[in-house]
Amino acid sequence: MNKPKKVIVYMPLKPDAAKRQNLPVKLPVLLEDLPKIIDKEKIDLDVIIRGLDAQYSVSKDDYYGSYLVYFCYEKFKKALNTNNLEEAEKWLEKAKKIKEDYRYHFYKGLLLRKKGELGLAEIELRKSVELKEDFYLGYYELGRLMQKKGEYDDAVKFYILSLEKAQGEFSPPLLGL
Predict the structure, then answer these.
(1) Collapsing DSSP states into helix, strand and coil, what is residue 109?
(2) Which pTM was predicted?
(3) pLDDT tens sequence across 64-73
(4) How many angstroms separate the CA atoms of 98 and 69, rounded?
């Protein structure tokens, strides 16, 4: 039996609204999801992902792929924050299949830290800052990890690096220090 075909509708968004929600100005939405977003101020994350996923399955272009990766990481963060580690890992691996970059290693490090695998978490977090040297959030999380491991000299080093890389845009490392 054939699977029913998915119909994608491209919903035009005002540039300001698209920018505020980090969405493309022509958002792919499944026809079946259209009633769920009409007259809504904010579009549900699952609706966004279903539309982007359908679009990406049709055409693997970087434009929609980058949005899909971003929203996979958003789902990852929600799952991680609710301690649903299996769900978090599922979203992490989905993002990796589309594009593996510094964010994959960063979030993998956070997941491993949550699982208590501190050594592997350190490797992944170090990889993230190796791939993106100005990634101040990566240095901050390395500082938190080193603090958790009781390696306070290294924690201070990473907190200072985070502050330097952020150039005044990010202050949580001061709390760590």
Answers:
(1) helix
(2) 0.90
(3) 999 999 999 9
(4) 7
